[in-house]
Design goal:
This protein is an alpha/beta fold. The protein is built from 14 helices and 15 strands. Helix 7 links the parallel strand 7 and strand 8. Bound molecules: pyridoxal-5'-phosphate.
């Protein structure tokens, strides 16, 4: 397939708007991605024509929505190549998925003095979710360090593993530096010690082909809104052997075995419903399937190829700007560039770029421990998607030059 960027951009209505009387240049895709018209239409279609709560009614609308919801699960299954569709749990997003899993694992499998290994690159979602466990006492976290380029020092992993290690929980792609971590290698090492691995795919699924069976990860999580789907929907994938034995951590409707509820005791549903208490975001799940089908239609390999070229171009152009410091120079990077202009505060740079219609992220990007490691209090982050163009990178570079003229 030829990559027709004009046609692709036309699929995303927001990309043709202006901000501050300038054409919008949206480079904050790491925070959330824009939505193609098909996804917007799908949400309108469901609410206009089919809306009804799922798994509860015998009437037409409920059957229709329930079937669409379960078909969405199959779409996710195929997108990440899970073995069974019941290994796909719908959640509110990556944060929801990690918390659900942490709550469940810490009921019985992880004990208060056990350890979980994470990395120095982690998003707060994969740090704090463990710290809130055990009534706030938290799970002991051991941290795999990075080198100055922002790459994991994977050779140090065996040193961190002890008989108390119950899980390794690592991001596949750093949201702040763009580092692509060697997760397959990490999983291989972990399994030699019989330790399960959770992969945070929040910044990975939208950029590269994810095959959970090939990775052999035990758990994989991601957010719909970062892959062109609505907010408030996400995925917790887990191998059947794990999800089957883990206890639910939320009780309520739909997760109970029908006929088993009494004031004394209740039995739980089979997978995946055991982990989906109450009314789920079924509209979000159905629209997420539409987003995944849209991505499949373009081809994740085509997206990866295009974004690779875009990153190379952006890296070359930004590196040639004097006074600009790029944070994160890993050999294997996703389409993210974090930078500072000498001593100019990231917030000032972000504000000026905004006046030029350029949306970038500023701050710590929910990675405060990483900021401490880099000895900075934040960066400007340009995170690209397959609808961004080479011309937009040129405009970003002119914007940076403009910032420089205002400060130097
Ligand atoms: N993990 C990573 C690597 C992220 O980049 C993010 C969000 O930026 C999250 C977790 C949390 O995602 P959400 O806010 O969609 O739950």
């Amino acid at each position: 397939m030829t990559f027709d960027i004009k046609k692709i951009r036309a699929d995303f209505p927001i990309l043709s708007r202006e901000v501050n009387k300038k054409p919008l240049i949206y480079l904050d895709n790491g925070a959330t991605t824009q939505k193609p018209q098909v996804v917007i239409d799908k949400i309108v279609d469901i609410y206009t024509n089919y809306n009804s709560n799922i798994h509860r009614g015998v009437h037409y609308l409920s059957s229709y929505t329930s079937e669409a919801y379960e078909n969405s699960r199959k779409t996710v299954q195929s997108f990440i190549n899970a073995k069974y569709s019941h290994e796909v749990i719908f959640t509110s997003g990556t944060t929801g998925s990690i918390n659900t899993l942490a709550d469940s694992l810490c009921q019985d499998y992880i004990k208060p003095d056990d350890e979980v290994i994470i990395s120095e690159l982690e998003h707060h979602a994969n740090i704090v979710s463990w710290q809130v466990q055990f009534g706030g006492k938290g799970v002991k976290l051991k941290v795999l360090p990075i080198n100055d380029a922002g790459e994991l020092l994977i050779e140090k992993l065996p040193e961190l593993i002890s008989e108390k290690t119950k899980l390794i929980s690592i991001t596949q792609v750093s949201n702040t530096l763009g580092t692509v971590n060697p997760v397959k290698e990490i999983i291989k090492i972990a399994h030699q010690y019989n330790i399960p691995v959770l992969i945070d795919g929040a910044q990975a699924v939208q950029h590269t082909k994810v095959d959970v069976q090939d990775l052999d990860c035990d758990f994989y999580v991601f957010s719909g809104h970062k892959i062109y789907a609505p907010t408030g929907i996400g995925v917790l994938y887990g191998k059947e052997k794990w999800l089957d034995k883990l206890p639910p951590c939320q009780g309520g409707g739909d997760m109970i075995l029908s006929g088993s509820v009494s004031f004394e005791k209740t039995l739980y549903q089979r997978l995946p419903f055991k982990f989906e208490a109450g009314t789920t975001n079924y509209v979000g799940a159905i629209a997420m399937a539409t987003a995944l089908e849209y991505v499949q239609g373009i081809g994740i390999e085509n997206i990866e190829n295009y974004e690779k070229q875009l990153l190379e171009y952006a890296n070359k152009k930004l590196s040639s700007i004097s006074e600009l410091i790029i944070y994160g120079n890993a050999k294997n990077k996703a389409c993210v560039i974090s930078f500072l202009i000498d001593t100019v505060h990231h917030y000032d740079t972000g504000m000026i770029l905004d006046k030029l219609g350029i949306a970038v992220r500023t701050g710590t990007h929910c990675t405060e421990p990483l900021m401490k490691r880099l000895r900075i209090d934040g960066t400007v982050r340009a995170s690209m998607a397959f609808y961004n163009t080479f011309e937009e990178i040129d405009v970003l570079c002119s914007g940076i030059e403009r910032v420089k003229t205002m400060f130097f």
